[in-house]
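Q: May I have one protein plus its fold?
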Amino acid sequence: MTGDHLDDPAVRELLELALTDQMAAGLLSRFLRGDGTVTGQLYERMVSLRT
């Protein structure tokens, strides 16, 4: 196992979903740049997009 979770279909699905939503994409961008303050918001947005 390489530890690369991008090969996981579920992770790829979430990333693709996040990139189709402007709010989620912005939150994901901030998170990936090290802004941990958006973790809760990003989680909630992703949950709402999956339902």
User: Anything to note?
Assistant: The two ends are 31 Å apart (CA to CA). The CA atoms of residues 6 and 12 lie 6 Å apart.
